[in-house]
Amino acid sequence: MQLLKRLTNRPELIWLARACGLREFLRKCYFRWARPADGIFQLKLAGMNAQFYVHTPEELRMLGKVETRDWEREVMEFLARNVQTGDVAYDIGSNIGLYTVFLSRAVGNHGQVIAYEPARQSYESLRDNLTLNAVTNVRAFQVALGDHSGKEKLYFSDADLLFSSLTRPRSPKMTHQIVQVVEGDKFREAENLPIPRVVKIDVEGYEYAVIRGLRRTLSNPACQLVACEVHPTLLPDGVKPEQVLDSLKSLGFTRIDILRCHVIPDYHVLASKG
């Protein structure tokens, strides 16, 4: 079972299925075969257990990749090792709550997680998964953090609701919904939210705007660690990946480690002040 899951998540096999026009057919077959009978996926990470509702093939594939040692798991295990009981953590771009739930476990009852997810469908799944895991130390907001406040188009695909981007559509077939964008620092102050010690950012090309809008928060000495996924092909015109790293350095993050995936241009930045 585990071997087959690893094979189905290999990027080269996914590319081959797409090239042969079989991706949609195989995706549905895999979903019918591998989806748990009760529709709930059990996942263990760094000694912590969590469970997630599985409604779509994309959700199953994402959870399966983490289960089979995907590079995303490396980032989650890094955070689990560095998050302390009682910490405040921000999950910016929380999607269905994968990081949120495990961060809530890691910070414990005396800690708190603040989750931000603008996409309507993902936000609803996030809330459902928080209830499923009996999480009580998370505050969730249906907003996108940025460097300004206003309404923006969030692009997504009906075939993959887990991917959404505020910067540009990834294909002509993508549609959009209108979401609320808020300037991070002003929103934190208005909501009287605590300064985080740990911040995770995964916003599909909008990361530079998130960091710019959170300058006061991230530069605060209490904020010690940022895990940010950088998407070079989705950044706005005129924004270079190096600017994301430089902005973190300017806010006091002196140690910058890069975790790369060998098959895609995206990479994770692990930034700390220690």
Provide a descriptive summary of the structure in words.
It is a single chain. The protein is of the alpha/beta class and 274 residues long. The protein has one domain (35-272): Rossmann fold (3-Layer(aba) Sandwich). Helix content is 38%, strand content 27%. The protein has helices at residues 2-8, 11-19, 23-34, 57-67, 71-82, 98-107, 120-132, 184-190, 207-213, 215-219, 241-250; strands spanning 40-45, 48-53, 88-92, 112-116, 138-141, 144-146, 150-157, 160-165, 175-183, 198-201, 225-230, 255-260, 267-272. The strands form three sheets. A seven-stranded mixed beta sheet has the order 5-4-3-10-11-13-12, with helices on both faces. Strands 6-9-7-8 form a four-stranded mixed beta sheet. A two-stranded antiparallel sheet has the order 1-2. Strand 4 (112-116), helix 7 (120-132) and strand 5 (138-141) form a beta-alpha-beta unit. The radius of gyration is 18 Å and the shape is globular. The model has no long low-confidence stretch (mean pLDDT 88).
